[in-house]
Amino acid sequence: MSKLFSGKGFSGNIKITQNEFLKLRDIIYDLSGIYLQDNRRFLVENRFAPRLSELEFKNYSDYIDYLQKHPKGKTEELGMLTELITTNETSFFRDNPQLKIFRNYTLKKLIDEGNNSGRKEIKIWSAGCSSGEEPYTLAIILHEALKDDIQKWRIKITANDISTNVLKMAEKGVYTKYALRTTPDYIIPKYFTEKDNDIYQINPEVKRLISFGKINLNQDFSVKKVAPSHIIFCRNVIIYFDKQMKQKVLGAFHNNLLDNGHLYVGHSESLHAITDKFKPRQHAGTITYHKI
Ligand SMILES: C[S@@+](CC[C@H](N)C(=O)[O-])C[C@H]1O[C@@H](n2cnc3c(N)ncnc32)[C@H](O)[C@@H]1O
Known about the structure:
α1 packs parallel to α3 (60-69) and α5 packs across α6. The chain has helices at 18-32, 41-54, 60-69, 76-85, 96-117, 133-146, 164-172, 187-191, 204-207, 220-223, 243-256, and strands at residues 121-127, 154-161, 174-176, 192-196, 199-202, 210-214, 229-234, 257-265, 278-283, 286-291. By secondary structure, it is an alpha/beta fold. The protein is globular. Residues 1-11 have low confidence and may be disordered. The chain has 11 helices and 10 strands. The structure holds S-adenosylmethionine. Residues 32-34, 86-90, 94, 128-130, 134, 161-163, 166, 215-218, 235-237, 240, 266 line the site of S-adenosylmethionine.
């Protein structure tokens, strides 16, 4: 994170008081729905100190005042805040056992139904897509499943994130070998072009299936704009939300999903005691959630 800033002014870590932490936590929560647990003070200090130095603030109270009162603080700085507070960890083919269930169960069902009815359409929403590895993985799996038949299908993957920085990377579609660390070997030459040593560009036939765009899951009006989906992937995102925000987002997913739609959440995430709008189904290594 610190490489984003020149770090002029203060070089050391600026300490945040408990009162300042609570105020900043509220601002972050109102903005994004991301809830910082009490033990995240250290993380805030680590991530925000270079920004405070750059703006030449001596303490967090001045920064909070800026966010609440200054015309630039109330607008542009909220974008900065978003970049600092989001965790964008991801990779291609993240959680392979879950993706196998997606391929062999959910996708197979949709493809069979489409072939039988003649309505060959698949709409997927990757909510919290980070730098694009997740939606590109889903697009590759669709190519692998449909092969040349893919031309006969109307496919749309809507991929959103709150962070402008990661969306820029996603649009570019250029990755280091590290992003491909959990990708099956045969996939890489088939769907990527090696540009340079260990730099890979996603191929256009994968890219054309995806529309990237900025969406804040905490803003009802922007979430409602997403076209109805057969499948939603929202993995490793709700883990950062509190119960109230989780319920709000899961309610929005329920509204967005078409009948019998499936929801995939992250390996360590569960809908238990959060909502009864989805029926869980246990598979080997993962749970799929079905719209009731
Ligand atoms: C840890 S990444 C997960 C990426 C991918 N889904 C995966 O599992 O590999 C979480 C992403 O959620 C995004 N995010 C957090 N809060 C959000 C919000 N309110 N609206 C939209 N995206 C959000 C972050 O910017 C981040 O890119």
